[in-house]
Amino acid sequence: MGRTIPSFRIAEAQEASEWRPFRRALSKGDRAVFDQMLTSARLYTSASSAAVRSSRFEGMAMAVIFHHYRLIARAAGALSETAREEGR
Prior knowledge:
Radius of gyration: 17 Å
Number of helices: 5
Low-confidence stretches: none
Distance between the termini: 64 Å
């Protein structure tokens, strides 16, 4: 018996390939940023797969949003720590 529904990892790669025209329209520098953004979505493939959404894009978008939120929270924590150490 074969798999009837592609794994989320495969679906994610298909979604990324469908965004190639958007990527091509970006400047070279922005293409690298776009690629990094898509790579960040792959960090949470298991969570996106577990969410079982009807649209593969929703899982990817939530993964990107979550990753960026984590980075912002970490940066805010580091800024607070630095300010505390400097006695502000």
